[in-house]
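Design job #97: recover the sequence.
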């Protein structure tokens, strides 16, 4: 089934780097771009894939062989962080190159304005055929031309056409499968799949498999075109879908239940309060199974790229929108400033042009990715770029201005976060009753700040703000510097704010149109 049209072929494929030649050149510094033909571009996205659930990150329980291979063939950024720990603001931020506040998308249901500059528009302007398939959180129906894409098959079309195709074979009634997903209406152990039940379809008939086949068909049909293709999978987002064949892939007993600190009780969302240890283990096992399923479908797309001889002249980027907490601090979600929710996988590969087998341990941010893509793909820079190009790392060089900190924001709860190598600072007004489903016992606890010494306390359990007022002041200055440099209303900041905290509180209010 083909759900798009090949509108604008770009002629024959020029000289390609063969797989054998590429493998021989993997460890070399990037070579000059092939003459007469720009590289293709393949952007693979996942939903809620935490940076620590990856074999390449040293996780021996994760089964992600295809992503691990991609990391061996490219550059893996091991300290990469999102700029907002929630789907829509994060995605539209790295799609536009702007922090969420400037992009105009800071809460889940806001659609990105159609007049915003995007990476897809930059590729389109450079003569690329552009396509998107899968979950993008544009919050509007798919249509040709949306945000710069020629071919648009977002989650609305994928869901409709996948359902229309139907299963190729029925699952036996004796096989226990998960119920309909009803988050927040059912208890958390049900909608987070603590029983680690498969979706009621076999592998071939899963939505993720359907999406992978659509991507492969696009590559087949456009192998002679100059393309920029986005493929965005829904896994491993809850309810952690995986097919019947993968049931029982992980033993829940192998997953230790993450520690909950003495300072965590007041801030654990009520919906997670009653989860039992064995249920938490089941949720973690379901998540790891879904990540395994995701990895398999990514491998299908990458194998198709290779079989068509396109891998030698295609820049591949893999990342997720944000991280995910799997029981850390008693939470099973993103929506917070702890490292598991902010830490995201990022891998870039292009044989002969991007250093292979390289792990970058310096901190990087999502907004650095669009700056990097424009740089390495030879595109005009986006008109607003809040990040910096990571190209030196891809060439095996030291970066002239490595990040000293990362900055993230979650304006649904009026929060801002700063992380350095040593410190993590969390600021929250505590005045907005959140509407994301993760209410705590006191939904409006008032303003609070937390400082964690990650050197002594990497799990971020013990607040040391009171003992370190100078560090707190430095962290707040970093937050204000970022907001003042990237917020669309920075010129309207009241000049009579009585404190840094009051100034930050003014910035963290959501202002989406």
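Job complete. Output follows.
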């Amino acid at each position: 089934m083909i759900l798009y049209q090949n509108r604008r072929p770009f002629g024959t494929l020029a000289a390609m780097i063969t797989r054998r030649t590429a493998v021989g050149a993997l460890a070399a510094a990037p070579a000059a771009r092939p003459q007469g033909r720009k590289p293709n571009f393949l952007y693979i996205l996942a939903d809620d894939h935490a940076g620590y659930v990856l074999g390449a990150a040293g996780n021996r329980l994760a089964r992600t062989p295809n992503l691990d291979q991609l990391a061996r063939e490219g550059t893996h950024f091991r300290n990469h962080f999102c700029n907002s720990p929630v789907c829509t603001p994060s995605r539209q931020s790295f799609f536009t190159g702007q922090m969420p506040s400037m992009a105009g998308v800071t809460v889940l249901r806001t659609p990105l304005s159609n007049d915003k500059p995007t990476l897809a528009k930059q590729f389109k302007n450079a003569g690329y055929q552009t396509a998107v398939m899968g979950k993008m959180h544009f919050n509007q129906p798919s249509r040709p031309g949306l945000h710069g894409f020629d071919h648009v098959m977002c989650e609305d079309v994928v869901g409709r056409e996948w359902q229309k195709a139907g299963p190729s074979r029925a699952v036996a009634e004796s096989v226990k499968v998960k119920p309909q997903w009803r988050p927040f209406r059912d208890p958390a152990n049900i909608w987070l799949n603590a029983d680690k039940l498969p979706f009621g379809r076999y592998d071939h008939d899963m939505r993720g498999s359907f999406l992978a086949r659509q991507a492969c068909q696009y590559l087949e049909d456009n192998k002679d075109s100059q393309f920029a293709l986005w493929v965005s999978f829904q896994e491993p987002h809850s309810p952690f879908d995986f097919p019947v064949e993968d049931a029982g892939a992980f033993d829940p007993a192998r997953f230790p239940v993450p520690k909950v600190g003495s300072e965590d009780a007041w801030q654990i969302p009520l919906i997670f309060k009653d989860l039992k240890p064995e249920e938490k283990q089941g949720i973690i096992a379901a998540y790891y199974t879904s990540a395994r399923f995701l990895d398999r479908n990514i491998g299908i797309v990458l194998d198709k790229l290779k079989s068509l001889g396109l891998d030698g002249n295609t820049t591949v980027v893999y990342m997720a929108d944000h991280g995910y907490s799997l029981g850390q601090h008693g939470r099973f979600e993103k929506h917070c400033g702890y490292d598991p929710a902010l830490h995201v996988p990022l891998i870039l590969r292009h044989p002969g042009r991007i250093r292979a087998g390289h792990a970058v341990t310096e901190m990087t941010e999502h907004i650095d990715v669009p700056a990097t893509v424009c740089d390495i793909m030879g595109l005009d820079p986006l008109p607003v770029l809040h990040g910096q190009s990571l190209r030196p790392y891809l060439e095996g060089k030291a970066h002239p201005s490595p990040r000293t900190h990362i900055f993230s924001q979650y304006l649904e709860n009026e929060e801002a976060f700063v992380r350095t190598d040593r410190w993590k600072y969390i600021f929250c007004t505590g005045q907005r009753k959140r509407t994301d489903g993760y209410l705590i016992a006191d939904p409006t606890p008032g303003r609070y700040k937390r400082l964690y010494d990650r050197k002594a306390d990497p799990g971020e359990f013990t607040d040391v703000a009171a003992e370190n007022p100078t560090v707190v002041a430095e962290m707040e200055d970093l937050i204000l510097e970022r907001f003042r440099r990237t917020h669309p209303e920075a010129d309207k900041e009241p000049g009579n704010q009585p404190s840094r905290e009051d100034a930050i509180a003014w910035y963290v209010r959501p202002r989406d149109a």
